[in-house]
Protein 1
Amino acid sequence: MDRCMNNNFLRPVTRRVIIAFLGAAVFWRPQISSPTLADETVAKFVGNLGDKAILQLADPAISSSEREERFRTLLNENFDVTRICRFVLGRYARNVGADEMAEFRRLYEDVAVLTYAHLFASYGGEGFKVKREVGDPGDRYKMVLTEVQPANGRPAIKLDWQIKIDGSSYSVVDIRVEGASMAITQREEYTAVLDKNGGDIKDLLAQLRSKVEKLRADRTNS
Amino acid sequence: MALVATLLLGGCATRPTDPEELAYYIETRDPLEPFNRAVFQFNEVTDKVVLRPLAIGYRAIVPSGIRAGIHNFLNNLKSPTTIINALLQGEGERARDTFGRFLTNTILGLGGFIDIASDAGIPQHYEDLGQTLAIWGVKPGPYLVMPILGPADLRHWVGYSVDGAISPTGYYIRREYGMEGVGVQAGLSALDWRSANLETVDDLRKSSLDFYATVRSAYRQRRQHEIWNGEQPKGDSFGGPEMIDFDKMDMDMELPPEEAPENGPVYEQ
C-alpha cells in the first residue's frame, strides 16, 4: 500500500486503523467543546431546558395528560410562542386580527402539545449535550448547537436552538432538527394552506380545529 | 426532460425583483407543483399500504442489533461515493476520514456490519455528486417528486443517477449479484430508512395541514445543510441554517409589486 499512496495520505489512515484495531472504543467519549464565548448563559439556558424536559417528561410513571400539561407549561415558560405564531403565518400575519391571532396561538400550542409531548414518553436515550453557542456579544439572537443521543445506538441527532435575548431573559424562537427549521417548515405549511384558500384565516382556523380534534381522538384511541 | 424544461421555463415568468422577495421566491418556488403533488399522493398511498407496514414488521421481527448491522453495511457501501465527491469538492480531510472508515469497517468490521470506525472516533460524512455540483455553482433546478423514490431537486437527481452508475460498490454488486443485488440493496435501504423514521414521519404527517409543503420545506433545508456540511457560510442570503430575523419577519415575504404599500414597507424596525 505504501507504494500506491503517498505517506501524507496514508499515515493518518493507518494510525486510525490501528487505533480501531486496538479497540479504542473504550477511550472514546463524545467531545463536548466548552462554549467559546465568555457569556455562557444562553448555552446554559438551553442545557437546563433540555435536562428539565427529559426529567419532567420522560418519567414513565406519569399519565399522558399529565405529560401534556407539563409540556404545555415548559412551552409557555420557555418559548416565545406569540412571536413564532406571527412568523409562521408569514405575509398573512399582517391581516390577522387580535382575536384570530389569539385563537391561532391556542390551536398552534395544542398541535405542538399533542404532537410532541408523547415523544418523550419513550425516550430512553443517553441525554442531551450542549456543543457550543453561536453569535456575537450584543446580538438579539443566538444559536445553541446541541446533540440528543437516541437510545437505539443510532447517530446523535443535531438540534440547534435559536434563542431570543431580551435583557437577561431568554426564549426559544426556533429549533432546527438536522438543519431543518421548524419555524420555516411550518411557515411553508401554513402559507401553502392560505395560498390555496385565498388567504382565508377563518378557514385555516377551522382546519386547525379539526386537526386538534383528530389528534386528540388518535391519542385517546392509542 | 423536455417536459421538465418547458415547465421550468414557464415557472420563471413571475420572478420578483426585490432581493428579499426573490430569496423567498427561490426558496419556495415549485414550478412542477401540480405534477409533484400527484406523484406525492401516489407515494403516500404506496407508503401507507406497502412500505410503512413492511417497516413496522422489519422493526418487530429483526432484532435491533441486526438492524444496526444492516444500517452500517448499507452506509459502508456509500463510502466510495463519498470519497470521490469529497475529493471533487476539495474536502481532503473528509475523503481521508471516509477512506479510513471504509478500510476499517470493511476489513475489521466484517464487510461493514460493525461500525468500528465510529467507535474509534473517525467521523462519518456523506457526500454525493449533487452536493459536489452545488459546490461547483450548479443551481438546484426544479423540485421533482419521483414515484417511489420520493422528493429531490433536479441537481440531486442527476447526481444520484451518475453516482449510481459510477459507484465502485454499485459496480461490484451488479457484477456479482446482477439486478437482484441492486434490488435487494434498494429495498433494504428503503426499509432501513423508513423503520428508523417511523415516528418522525408519522408525527409530521399527522400534525401537518399540508404534508406536501412540509416535506418540501424540510427536504430543501436538510439538503442545504448537507451541501454546507452543517456550516452556514457567512453572508449568504439564500435560506439555509442562518439565524432567522424574527423582528422583521412579515417583511420577508413575496408581495406582488402592485400590492406593495405606496410609502414603502411599514414594517421597518
Protein 2
Amino acid sequence: MPLAITGVAAVVRWAYYDAAVVHGYRIGRDDAQQWHVRATVIHVNRVNLELGRGALVFVATHQGGEWTWPIESYTLTENLFTARLGPPDTGSHVPLRHA
Amino acid sequence: MSHFVTPETIRLELPGADWLLVKRRLSAGEYRAMLRRMSTLNGDGTYHVDPLETGIARMVAYLVDWSFPEYPIRGKTHVDVYAACDQLDPDDFELVKEAVAAHEAAMTAERERQKKVLGGATASPSISPSPAAATGATNGFAT
C-alpha cells in the first residue's frame, strides 16, 4: 500500500552544508517500495546541490530528532524539488563523512 | 586535488574522553566569514583584527559538534555556537581553542606538503607576456 508523509520544513544537506531549504514536502513510497519526495524550494545553494550530488540527504525534523533519506537522484525545476530517495535512516543525526 | 572544498570532518580527542568534531578545512566563504568575525570596522572604513576575537572566531568557523551534552551544537547557527563557546568554563574554552588552532595548523601544513608533492609549492603561476609587452609596446590611450 502506498505510504505518504507530509511536513512543513525540511532541508537537503550535503554533510554539514545546507544545499536547499524546502517547504511543504510530501514523501511517498510507491508500490515498488521506492521512496520519492516533492517539495517547494525556499532557498537553494545550487553549487552545493551540484557538488554534493551522490552524497545528499533529505532531512525532515520531528520532535525526537531527524528522519533522513539518502537522495539517489533529484530534479530542480523553478522552485519545485523532486527526488528519488533511498531507504530512510531513522537515527537522530545526519551521518557526516569522516576524513 | 579538488578545487572545491568537500565537507569532511575530523574528530579531535580531548582529555577525559571528550571530543570535538571539526571541519577538515574551510571553504573560501567560510574563511572570509571567520576573518570578518575576527575583525572590527574602524570609523575610516578599514578593518582591524581584534585579538580577543581570533580564537572564538576560529572555533565558530571549524566546530561542527562536540561531546558536551549540556548543549549540543550540531546544526546550530554560528550565533548559537558563538554563544555556547562564550558560556564554556574558561579552562574548557582554552582547551577547545587550542585544539582547533592546532588542527588548523596541521591542516595548513598538510596542504603545503601536498602542494610541494604536486610541484606547485612556491612557483608563481606561469603567465605568458602579452603580445604588447613582447613587442615592447605600451598599453594605454594615445594622446
